[in-house]
Every structure is written in structure tokens, then in C-alpha cells.
Design brief:
CATH class: Mainly Beta
Oligomer: single chain
Helix content: 10-25%
Distance between the termini: 17 Å
Number of helices: 2
CATH topology: Elongation Factor Tu (Ef-tu), domain 3
CATH superfamily: Riboflavin kinase-like
Number of domains: 1
Radius of gyration: 13 Å
Structural class: alpha+beta
Strand order of the largest sheet: 1-6-3-4-5-2
CATH architecture: Beta Barrel
Length: 117
């Protein structure tokens, strides 16, 4: 079980526009891809799906851990979180459009919810 922790930073807001707002943490480790995760925020546990990488659909230059937390809408920018990597769902890949990416994220969310139930 791998846990990544760090301070939530502001992102570009793309996840929110796609319907999947994310908590973003700088990450320079070896992991990359999409994962089912558990998230610890101030001692409370949540479930979610995370992308670790460069968001190739958008060509980002910095590596981030981006976590979509299920049923969560509070702003946690500046707070420390811990993200437990539970299971890899797929490799990170470039999609032809933001719409294609959003469809794939919906599939990732369904898979993660089954794994984390």
C-alpha cells in the first residue's frame, strides 16, 4: 500500500469543467496512471479516483497527483491530504478531445467505486 501525501494546490480548473473537480498535489515519484484511491482529509476517509501524470490530453508540463473525491464539494486548497493508492485502473493516455476524456473518467469512476465499495 502506497500513500502519497502533500498540500493541495490550485490547478487549471479543467477537472471542474469536465464535471470531476480535483484536489491537486505536486508529485515527483515514479507512479503514473489512473488509480482507485482512499483519501484522508483531517482524519476523515473518502473514496476517489486519481490521475498521476502530465495530463497528456492538455499537454501539461508538470507532474501532478489529481484526485477526484466522490461525493465531496468542499474547497481544500492549502490543506494537507493523504492519498492511499488501492489499485491501478489504467495507464494515463492522450484523448482526442476533452469530451472523450470525460467519458473515460466516468468509466474510471464506476470501476473505482466497485473496487472500493
Amino acid at each position: 500500500m502506497k500513500i502519497i501525501s502533500g498540500k493541495v494546490i490550485s490547478g487549471a480548473g479543467r477537472g471542474r469543467k469536465l464535471g470531476f473537480p480535483t484536489a491537486n498535489v505536486k508529485y515527483s515519484g515514479r507512479l503514473s496512471g489512473v488509480y482507485a484511491v482512499r483519501v484522508d482529509i483531517a482524519g476523515r476517509r473518502y473514496k476517489g479516483v486519481a490521475n498521476i501524470g502530465y495530463a497528456p490530453t492538455f499537454g501539461r508540463k508538470t507532474k501532478l497527483l489529481e484526485v477526484y473525491i466522490f461525493n465531496f464539494s468542499r474547497s481544500i486548497t492549502g490543506k494537507n491530504i493523504g492519498v492511499e493508492i488501492v489499485k491501478k485502473l489504467r495507464d494515463e493516455k492522450k484523448f482526442g478531445s476533452a469530451n472523450e476524456l470525460a467519458k473515460e473518467i466516468k468509466k474510471d469512476v464506476r470501476k473505482a467505486k466497485k473496487i472500493l465499495h
